[in-house]
């Protein structure tokens, strides 16, 4: 009898955890992803702000799975799923049949129906995004150094981050440190510390999923770093010259979008009822209603936790779901009893704000400042998938901590952020 064929779409935390859980399964596994690498997304903002290089947080999927002989890796963009016939459509590739399908496609940023804003407000979801933002940030200072028009310099050195979740807080804090510490002595004609960093959050407080005490600490710490924090202030309009929020108009060419997420179109592929954010609603074994051989995990799924609310789009959620589905499929194929319903073990949530500054909600205790930062650092080092990545990140973090330096401050494409508009080189 032919081996069962398991197709996993997405090489993120969930997809990779599912693949590894199937290491000794009597099945053929095909992993499909739009890129050829596994990306450690929680540190993506550090690539965008020149703290780390892309290779520090990304590893080729084939290299990670070289020793797992039952896995085939395909780089391709999935365009649809035929649930009835059991096949996956991949752009410019023959359809791939499956006996079991695991969707781990992650989520994209949502502009809340204002998709036209995407042209002027870059997001941070991929290495390409991070490198483009890095070019824009560093290029703004380089351009300002050689110009005398103070109004244009002010516009170029105004950085707006939209979204007060962990990514927005981390990005705003790191940009503040980049301008006030790392670049402070590198320029002759401008003062990088004069850069204006503004963080907008439509809700009443930053880090809304954290306890209020930690939210308040994050706000106070950002303000000490020089970040202007605007809560309860939704953005009304974004264009190539700046943005409008409430009664205020801010002229800037550097707007970064970190607000709101929407799941990839997996629900549309399956004809399934989506959750509010477009995620696929799943049962307690992570399978899709009406499709017991199709599973959705991580950000693309909507799984009700013990409190009845959907689990957050966090890396630990995706990893635990991926490992669970892998074990479930392995047991099912072997004819063994399946594990019980999926139960998420919440080890806490963390967000870093800057050098030696972070917040951590571990459930049984709450940490701020250096202890939280140290905990965050150790956890993220251990979550990196290979020893080389851990070593390089540790070296870079140590260098940055002792010297305030950043080793990835290269501008390689002149058209990014070098000029009074973000679209035209000077």
Can you put this structure into words, describing what you see?
Among the domains are: 4-34 and 76-109 and 261-334, 3-Layer(bba) Sandwich (FAD/NAD(P)-binding domain); 115-259, FAD/NAD(P)-binding domain (3-Layer(bba) Sandwich). It is of the alpha/beta class and 426 residues long. It is built from twelve helices and 25 strands. The chain has helices at 13-21, 44-48, 54-57, 61-64, 127-145, 150-156, 166-182, 212-224, 266-270, 315-334, 369-383, 387-403; strands at 4-9, 27-33, 37-39, 58-60, 71-75, 78-82, 87-90, 93-97, 100-103, 107-109, 158-162, 196-201, 227-231, 237-239, 242-245, 248-251, 254-257, 261-263, 280-281, 287-288, 291-296, 301-302, 349-354, 357-361, 366-368. Helix 1 links the parallel strand 1 and strand 2.
Offer a concise description of the structure:
This protein has 426 residues and is of the alpha/beta class. 32% of the residues lie in helices and 25% in strands.
Number of H/I helices: 12
The termini sit apart by: 65 Å
Broad CATH class of the domain at 115-259: Alpha Beta
**Name given to the CATH architecture of the domain at 115-259:** 3-Layer(bba) Sandwich
- Label the overall shape: globular
Q: What is the percentage of strand-forming residues?
A: 15-25%
* Biggest sheet details: 6 strands, mixed
Q: Report strand order across the widest sheet.
A: 5-2-1-9-21-20
CATH fold-type name of the domain at 115-259: FAD/NAD(P)-binding domain
Structural class estimated from helices and strands: alpha/beta
Would you tell me the overall average pLDDT? 90
The overall strand count is 25
Radius of gyration: 22 Å
Helix fraction bin? 25-40%
Low-pLDDT segments: 420-426
């Amino acid at each position: 009898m032919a081996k069962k064929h398991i197709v996993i779409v997405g090489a993120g935390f969930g997809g990779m955890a599912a693949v590894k859980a199937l290491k000794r399964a009597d099945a053929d596994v095909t992993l499909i992803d739009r890129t050829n690498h596994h990306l450690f997304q929680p540190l993506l903002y550090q690539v965008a702000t020149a703290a780390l290089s892309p290779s520090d947080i990304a590893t080729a999927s084939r290299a990670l799975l070289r020793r797992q002989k039952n896995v085939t890796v395909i780089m391709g963009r999935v365009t649809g799923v035929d649930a009835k016939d059991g096949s996956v459509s991949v752009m410019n590739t023959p359809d791939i049949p499956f006996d079991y399908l695991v969707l781990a496609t992650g989520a994209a940023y949502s502009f809340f129906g204002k998709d036209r804003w995407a042209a002027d407000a870059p997001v941070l979801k991929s290495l390409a995004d991070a490198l483009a933002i890095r070019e824009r940030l560093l290029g703004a200072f380089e351009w300002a150094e050689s110009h005398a028009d103070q109004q244009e310099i002010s516009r170029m050195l105004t950085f707006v981050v939209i979204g007060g979740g962990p990514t927005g807080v981390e990005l705003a804090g790191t940009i503040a440190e980049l301008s006030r510490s790392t670049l402070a002595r590198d320029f002759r004609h401008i003062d990088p510390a004069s850069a204006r960093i503004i963080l907008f959050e439509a809700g009443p407080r930053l880090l809304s999923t954290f306890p209020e005490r930690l939210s308040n600490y994050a706000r106070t710490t950002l303000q000490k770093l020089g970040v202007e924090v605007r809560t309860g202030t939704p953005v009304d309009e974004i264009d190539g010259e700046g943005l409008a929020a409430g009664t205020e108009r801010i002229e800037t060419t550097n707007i970064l979008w970190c607000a709101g997420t929407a799941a990839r179109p997996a629900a549309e592929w399956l004809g399934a009822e989506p959750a509010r954010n477009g995620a696929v609603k799943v049962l307690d074994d992570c399978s899709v209603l009406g499709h017991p051989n199709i599973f959705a995990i991580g950000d693309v799924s909507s799984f009700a936790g013990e409190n009845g609310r959907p689990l957050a789009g966090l890396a630990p959620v995706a990893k635990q779901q991926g490992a669970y589905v892998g074990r479930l499929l392995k047991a099912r194929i072997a004819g063994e009893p399946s594990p019980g319903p999926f139960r998420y073990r919440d080890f806490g949530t963390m967000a870093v704000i800057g050098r030696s500054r972070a917040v951590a909600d571990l459930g049984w205790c709450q940490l701020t400042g250096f202890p939280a930062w140290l905990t965050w650092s150790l956890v993220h080092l251990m979550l990196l998938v290979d020893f080389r990545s851990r070593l390089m990140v540790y070296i870079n973090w140590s260098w940055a901590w002792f010297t305030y330096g950043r080793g990835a401050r290269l501008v390689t494409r002149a058209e990014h952020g070098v000029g009074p508009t973000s679209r035209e080189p000077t």
